Amino acid sequence: MANEPTIHTVYKSLNKPLTIWGVDRRYFFFAVAMGGATFNMFSSFLGGILMFVALYVFARWATKHDAEILRIVLNSSRAKVLYDPGKLEYFHPKWIRHDQAQPHHS
């Protein structure tokens, strides 16, 4: 019986992102906070609503495509650059005629 697979119950709710109105909760609270800050800073209720709606639409798109996109983008600034196109060294191929090529040993 040692070769028998072990079955573990996994509930769907563990793998679903926590959402409010279809948006990841972190993005939703960020949109609400920025809408409130816009309202307080500019004393414009319409400005606060427009800021909230704009951020909500972006958050809805981000949640639909990848719920962790904001975390990835923010953490990417700490990652080491592996490729820098500004330091590109050009490769100049050397052309060899077929009859001058060395035979391949396999």
Task: Walk me through the topology.
Layout: E1 19-20, E2 23-24, H1 25-42, H2 45-65, H3 69-76
Antiparallel strand pairs: 1-2
Helix pairs in contact: 1-2
Tell me what the structure shows.
- With about 110 residues, this protein is mostly helical.
- It has a domain at about 20-65.
- It contains three helices and two strands.
- It has a two-stranded antiparallel ribbon with strand order 1-2.
- β1 (about 20) and β2 form a beta hairpin.
- α1 packs antiparallel against α2 (about 45-65).
- The protein is flat.
- The model has no long low-confidence stretch (mean pLDDT about 80).
So how many helices? Answer: 3
Please write the string of helix (H) and strand (E) elements: EEHHH
CA radius of gyration: 27 Å
Strand order of the largest sheet: 1-2
Fraction in beta strands: under 5%
Q: What is the typical, i.e. mean, pLDDT?
A: 81
Q: How many strand elements?
A: 2
Instruction: Give the biggest beta sheet.
Output: 2 strands, antiparallel
Low-confidence stretches: none
Give helix % range. 40-55%
Distance between the termini: 47 Å
Class by alpha and beta content: mainly alpha
